[in-house]
Amino acid sequence: MPKNFGRDPTETLARAAYSTAAGMPNWQIVSESEVREVSGNLGPASETERFRQIGEMVYADAVLTGRVQRYRERVGDEWGAKSPASVAFVLDLIDVRRGDVIWSARFDETQKSLSENIFAIGDIGQRGVRWLTAAQLTQEGVRKALGQLHQIIARAPIS
Fold it and tell me: Which one of 47, 49, 85, 105 has the minimum C-beta count within 10 Å?
């Protein structure tokens, strides 16, 4: 992952979701540019209707949306932070045909030092002993959430 995924938290979440989903086996992901192109052709509509229309225009079964609720960058560097990164977001998967949310995940984390949270020891294997940026924390949260979604889909019977 690039060190700086973008300064805009919404863009950072969108890029993290796209890059993670594109790497999932057996998923066909529509490019960001194609979504941007078709969404520019839509008239005024509710958010749900807009997502449904975009999904239909790109022949998708579902649309993944995200909402950033908190995005606070760490103060300091990866070896010593005065204030840790803190990120909260929600991801929703919307069924294009029905227009309803069929899966949702919430991520809410403020990184803590190992001495503050002994339960974080499992994260050391993935993160190492360092302070993450808000973009890195976002990427980690998206990777966990979409990994869970992928497991659910992989276990679901084909109808």
Answer: 47
